[in-house]
């Protein structure tokens, strides 16, 4: 019982940590701390948080294995869903605040601007992952198909980083930091797969 | 207050030549004494009040707030984020300040800022500023028509372009410690663009000398071109025969051309230029050809502006 209480407490803390950027952004917006162009700043911040949570969700499996703490895996769904929530808010603020539902301009942007095409693709690919994150959906798909579907994240995450890289005008250092983290996280998986494959043969 | 619809702007809204020629009559006899006094003010970073005669062709649109103009800046010498210049520009020493004038002119030399500005009357001109990133401001600049300054150095017949350089001083401009752009920042204009009556050499805004983050002590303002053409903290003016290299053209030639006129029909490769967000407003507004300064159209007669972007 005591360990169950502790579990719930830890889970609540993780949830609060994932949620914290939202009130923080809201507070900054309310106080005018997002600068002279708050809409642009808000969209950027939401996008960056989406990318951060995608990377954190990708770090959970390697962390659980390396630290030999398999129970970390239970946070993966929460972190992944928060990543989707931030990307969804990012997308919604672009559509609703930046373009103010000017669907003609949005359509043109998607077709003509590679960085928006890429961002939009990544967003659309995230939707099935979010939808199939319920216990019922996992049961219905079965673990094999569910896992196969969720490998889409290995496409989505690089698209997200590329989307960030392409919108930067001159200083590419911040998106390259995200790219480096992603390379390590994906590199570990390749190394892990190669190792397992070797063991089988 | 009448807020004119930007779409109503016509050739007539820009200074007619004969009236422009009589501009000195509008002056109240204020020479550049204000800026000279400001230059010898004791504190470095603080702005000093500056007197200037109002220019009758200023836009009547509501001005962007002083806070936004001085806290939302692209000045990569102090960092690439919008709030970096306001935070990091305090250490720049703008006194003494010398400007090197060279190239095809009769009076090249290295001049003190005071000598560059001496004898010119200051005007307050409220201009729209359109950034290539898709936002805009309305700024009450104080300055001197660039043509008046350039003529004093007597460009020769060989002078076809004017090139400008920003200060290169990494010790006081922390952004220059990394090669985000090629330093020093360079910009340039065709001589006829530089001599156009709308082109301003600004030394102040909102009734006071420029803050460092806005390009103190002296910067260009070319209101019909994207903001990055309006080079800040100028230390060199060169009259050249060939088109000068510019910082953004060197950095990304497929994205930033030499002309960089505000043009809603020519998109930046990565985003549309059809609309802009006026800082302080929520809804995007339509971007105007030449940022609404249609009198400059004659400078580009016969040119394909899609090619010469």
Give the secondary structure arrangement, pairings included.
The complex is a heterodimer of chains A (201) and B (309).
Chain A: H1 2-19, H2 21-31, H3 38-66, H4 76-98, H5 103-112, H6 114-131, H7 135-141, H8 143-150, H9 153-167, H10 173-200
Helix pairs in contact in A: 3-4, 3-9, 3-10, 4-6, 5-6, 6-9, 7-8, 9-10
Chain B: H1 17-21, H2 23-26, H3 33-39, E1 53-54, H4 66-71, H5 84-88, E2 98-103, E3 109-112, H6 113-117, E4 123-130, E5 135-145, H7 146-151, E6 161-166, E7 186-190, H8 191-194, E8 200-205, E9 208-209, E10 219-221, E11 234-240, H9 247-251, E12 275-278, E13 285-286
Parallel strand pairs in B: 1-4, 2-11, 5-12
Antiparallel strand pairs in B: 2-3, 4-5, 5-8, 6-7, 6-11, 8-9, 8-10, 12-13
What form of chain B results from the Cα inertia axes?
globular
Helix content class of chain B: 10-25%
Number of domains of chain A: 1
Total helical segments of chain A: 10
Most extensive chain-chain interface? A-B, 22 and 27 residues
CATH class of chain B: Alpha Beta
CATH architecture type of chain B: Alpha-Beta Complex
The tally of strands of chain B reads: 13
- What name does CATH use for the topology of chain B? Sulfite Oxidase, Chain A, domain 2
């Amino acid at each position: 019982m005591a360990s169950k209480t502790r579990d719930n407490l830890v889970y609540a803390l993780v949830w609060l940590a994932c949620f914290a950027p939202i009130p923080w952004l809201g507070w900054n917006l309310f106080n005018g701390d997002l600068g002279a162009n708050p809409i642009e700043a808000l969209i950027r911040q939401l996008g960056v948080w989406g990318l951060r949570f995608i990377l954190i969700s990708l770090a959970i499996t390697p962390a659980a294995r390396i630290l030999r703490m398999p129970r970390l895996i239970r946070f993966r769904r929460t972190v992944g869903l928060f990543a989707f929530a931030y990307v969804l808010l990012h997308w919604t603020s672009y559509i609703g605040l930046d373009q103010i539902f000017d669907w003609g301009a949005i359509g043109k942007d998607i077709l003509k601007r590679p960085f928006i095409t890429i961002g939009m693709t990544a967003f659309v690919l995230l939707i099935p992952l979010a939808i199939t994150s319920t216990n019922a959906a996992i049961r219905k798909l079965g673990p094999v198909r569910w896992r196969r579907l969720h490998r889409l994240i290995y496409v989505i995450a690089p698209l997200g980083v590329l989307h960030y890289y392409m919108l930067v005008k001159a200083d590419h250092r911040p998106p390259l930091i995200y790219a480096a983290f992603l390379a390590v996280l994906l590199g570990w998986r390749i190394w892990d797969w190669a190792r397992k494959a070797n063991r089988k043969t | 207050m009448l807020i004119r619809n930007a779409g109503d702007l016509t050739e007539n809204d820009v200074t007619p030549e004969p009236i422009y020629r009589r501009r000195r009559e509008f002056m109240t006899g204020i020479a550049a004494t204000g800026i000279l006094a400001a230059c010898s003010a004791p504190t470095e970073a603080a702005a000093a009040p500056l007197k200037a005669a109002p220019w009758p062709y200023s836009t009547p649109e509501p001005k962007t707030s002083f806070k936004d103009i001085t806290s939302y800046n692209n000045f990569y010498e102090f960092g690439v984020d919008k709030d970096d210049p306001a935070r990091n520009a305090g250490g720049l020493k703008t006194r003494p300040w010398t400007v090197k004038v060279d190239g095809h002119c009769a009076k090249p030399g290295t001049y003190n800022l005071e000598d560059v500005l001496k004898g010119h009357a200051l005007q307050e001109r409220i201009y729209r500023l359109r950034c290539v990133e898709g936002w805009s401001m309305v700024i009450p600049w104080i300055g001197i028509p660039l043509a008046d300054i350039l003529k004093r150095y007597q460009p020769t017949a060989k002078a076809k372009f004017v090139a400008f350089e920003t200060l290169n001083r990494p010790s006081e401009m922390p952004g220059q410690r990394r090669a985000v752009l090629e330093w020093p920042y360079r910009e340039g204009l065709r001589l006829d663009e530089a001599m156009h009556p709308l082109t301003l050499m600004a030394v102040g805004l909102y009734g006071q000398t420029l803050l460092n983050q806005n390009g103190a002590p002296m910067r260009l303002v070319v209101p019909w071109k994207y903001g990055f053409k309006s080079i800040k903290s100028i230390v060199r003016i060169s009259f050249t025969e060939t088109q000068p290299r510019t910082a953004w053209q060197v950095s990304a030639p497929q994205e930033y051309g030499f002309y960089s006129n505000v043009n809603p029909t020519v998109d930046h490769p990565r985003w549309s230029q059809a609309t802009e967000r006026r800082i302080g407003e929520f809804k995007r507004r339509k971007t105007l050809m030449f940022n609404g300064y249609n009198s400059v159209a004659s400078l580009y007669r016969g040119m394909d502006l899609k090619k010469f972007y």
